[in-house]
């Protein structure tokens, strides 16, 4: 069992010194502190100024979402970090594999043997037929008993009538084994050859090659395999005999897989490539309640892959599942129009030399003319270096004029969407590039450590920083989706955009550090890494909280 | 001076090359013609079907203008790509007033619908270019998604509008 | 499994026209991968009086895998046939196929489908909806329209 991690060491302390930068605009800071104070009643002591502001931000419709919900367990057992990341508090789930689910089923079957008087194998087939649903099986069994077995093909109809084998033409001695025959004429392949054959009690005999092809084809379906010529069922032993290998396991696995597929409310495959873990959520009733509060069910598999349970998609805080779905849908529709945005090579705005981006940092320096510009907006870098990050703010011109024709409205909406889509993609690309860069540098550092004799723990800072940077960029990326659907004129949106700028700046700073290629220099600037990573983490949490607030207050309206 | 044998050989080579080139050219032209011919043929088909193809929903007012418009003339014509979807309640009237004047081979152009939903499914299935309907005479009006299945919707409000679209 | 197809071909030829009412034959006897057949519209259906060509393709792994059967595009208005491509949705040709069935069985299954459409798995959504709605006049009307309209072209 795996509850949302209780991690007392990382309690959120909002009085951290960020990294020495001074800000002209402190409203963002203030906001995040207020948000922190409001919710963490049981963790932090409330100061008077927060109480006043609490009333300012109470919900219009009277229900105070923050204090209304009843959680199963008190907040104090949940780490502030988990709360900040937009996860559902106290989400209980377990991580399994297809094999472990199968073993659980086998256990159940062993229990059921007492009720049914059938061998384990047949019982397994029965369960397989009913999609591993015990209740349906029991219902059907009490209704039909032996007839059920005939229906599924586990028993020959003739057996139940008189209790003896009526069809004796093919004798039980030859059934369910490989028989060697000379000049056997197989009906399926119409070849006459000396070969092994296989048949069940029904007498339908075919050459082993045909049977093998047939069985191999049906292994992926997950259903009971029947005789080629009738509905009598092949048992797992027969399958193994025919294929000459333990293929019945494969059949069981594909049956379990289809079971997981059918029960996708409680079970989810880990969406990461080549990861075969399944997350099992026992109680899904609380999910609706949490969705109302705009929490997303983020889970982690045993391979440390984090993803959203509802969407089977990556972590998308601060956007909730609704916004995410709409955004993904929209981008799929518009992708044809916006392909140019995704180009990885651009020309220097001054000297038009081709530049290819190979790192996540958006601060570009042209190798030809040394012009410093921002990759995203292709404008001068100097304004970006200061506190206000020009890129992230969408300035819609012609705000005063009303769009006369529907065409104009459509053009404006498309322009706005293009802007946000561009930002979204820029962050996604940067995140990927950062990650690759990080891995490469990490390898170098490890090499250096071995030479310099630095302990492994000390060297973890780099991996941590890369991870923090990745999470920061992901949160920033999804914040653009939230911003697109938000009402730009509202004060809270402006604060949200401020938070975005701060996080952008923080992320670019950390990304720049990653670009240092020499491992010795990296070790020197270790403290910088720690500081900047910590700052990014804090700003990420703040942004996520602000985003959640936008959603709760209905300022962000996914439409 | 080159010996006559090699001269003849060279001439032979030249003619051989020329013949091969001509043969290749002819094959290419033939294949290209086949390829574009197929595409053209298909294009022709879809363009024909799309150009001016009409779908008319027959409601009481549509039957009323029979004296002036003479629907049977449109049905009886090979050149007109038009289909009539007869709403419930108008079957007998349309049949006696219009279809009785129509040749047997063209009677398929009139489809009787027993339900109103059926009319819209027919419209969606046929995908004609132009749809003519009087929304007020059809219960629940025009469905929202109908624009995906037709290009133009000629919405008539009165029977005079019909006469504008189909001049006497 | 070419032996098997060859055997089927021989059997069809030997049985003669009477047993092969759909005139199932390979397009080119030298290449047994592509076959053709002609289905007569069943009596009592709007398809009555019309003939429908059918194209059968035999895959390499036949008879483990089913043959693919389809109509030429825009010739068959039917709830389980996609109008624009001629693709047929039939369980016998997919999950319900077993190697004991043969090409003739497949063709006959399609013929049965003409007489008994399956509302559960429609490829022509509007026709299936008309059938579900119970508007038989409209259903028959659309089919007759399609058959008459395409034959004129």
TrEMBL record, chain A:
Q: What is this protein called?
A: RBR-type E3 ubiquitin transferase
Query: Known CDD domains for this protein?
Result: BRcat_RBR_ANKIB1 (cd20346), Rcat_RBR_HHARI-like (cd20356)
Q: Which organism is it from?
A: Huiozyma naganishii (strain ATCC MYA-139 / BCRC 22969 / CBS 8797 / KCTC 17520 / NBRC 10181 / NCYC 3082 / Yp74L-3) (Yeast)
Q: Is the Transferase keyword given for this protein?
A: yes
Q: Which UniProt keywords apply?
A: Metal-binding, Repeat, Transferase, Ubl conjugation pathway, Zinc, Zinc-finger
Instruction: Please state every residue range assigned to the domain named RING-type.
Output: 182-395, 186-231
This enzyme catalyses:
[E2 ubiquitin-conjugating enzyme]-S-ubiquitinyl-L-cysteine + [acceptor protein]-L-lysine = [E2 ubiquitin-conjugating enzyme]-L-cysteine + [acceptor protein]-N(6)-ubiquitinyl-L-lysine
Q: Which SMART domains match?
A: IBR
Q: Which residues form the signal peptide?
A: none
Q: Name one GO molecular function term.
A: ubiquitin protein ligase activity
Q: Which InterPro entries match?
A: ARIH1-like_UBL, E3_UB_ligase_RBR, IBR_dom, TRIAD_supradom, Znf_C3HC4_RING-type, Znf_RING, Znf_RING/FYVE/PHD, Znf_RING_CS
The EC designation for this entry is 2.3.2.31
Q: Gene3D superfamilies, alphabetically?
A: 1.20.120.1750, Zinc/RING finger domain, C3HC4 (zinc finger)
Q: List the GO biological process terms.
A: histone catabolic process; protein ubiquitination
TrEMBL record, chain B:
Signal peptide segment: none
Q: Cross-referenced InterPro entries, in alphabetical order?
A: Peroxin-22, Peroxin-22_C_sf
| A single GO BP | peroxisome organization
**Keyword tRNA processing set for record:** no
Note the Pfam families from the entry: Peroxin-22 (PF12827)
Give the residue spans that cross the bilayer: none
State the annotated membrane topology for this chain.
Answer: Single-pass membrane protein
Q: Where in the cell is it found?
A: Peroxisome membrane
- State the UniProt keywords alphabetically: Membrane, Peroxisome, Peroxisome biogenesis, Transmembrane, Transmembrane helix
Q: Name one GO cellular component term.
A: peroxisomal membrane
Give the family, as the similarity comment puts it. Belongs to the peroxin-22 family.
Function statement:
Involved in peroxisome biogenesis.
Q: What is this protein called?
A: Peroxisome assembly protein 22
Specify the species.
Huiozyma naganishii (strain ATCC MYA-139 / BCRC 22969 / CBS 8797 / KCTC 17520 / NBRC 10181 / NCYC 3082 / Yp74L-3) (Yeast)
Automatic annotation (TrEMBL), chain C:
Keywords attached to this Swiss-Prot or TrEMBL record, sorted alphabetically, are: ATP-binding, Nucleotide-binding, Transferase, Ubl conjugation pathway
**UniProt cross-references to SMART domains, sorted A to Z:** UBCc (SM00212)
Q: What is a biological process (GO) this protein takes part in?
A: protein import into peroxisome matrix, receptor recycling
Q: Where is the UBC core domain?
A: 1-152
| Leader sequence residues | none
Q: List, alphabetically, the InterPro entries matched.
A: Ub_conjugating_enzyme, UBC, UBQ-conjugating_AS, UBQ-conjugating_enzyme/RWD
- What does UniProt list as catalytic? 89
Q: Name one Pfam family in it.
A: UQ_con
Naming one, the record's GO cellular component terms include: peroxisome
Q: In which pathway does it act?
A: Protein modification
Gene Ontology terms, MF aspect: ATP binding; ubiquitin-protein transferase activity
- Does S-adenosyl-L-methionine show up as a keyword for this record? no
**Family recorded in the similarity comment:** Belongs to the ubiquitin-conjugating enzyme family.
Record protein name field: UBC core domain-containing protein
Native organism: Huiozyma naganishii (strain ATCC MYA-139 / BCRC 22969 / CBS 8797 / KCTC 17520 / NBRC 10181 / NCYC 3082 / Yp74L-3)
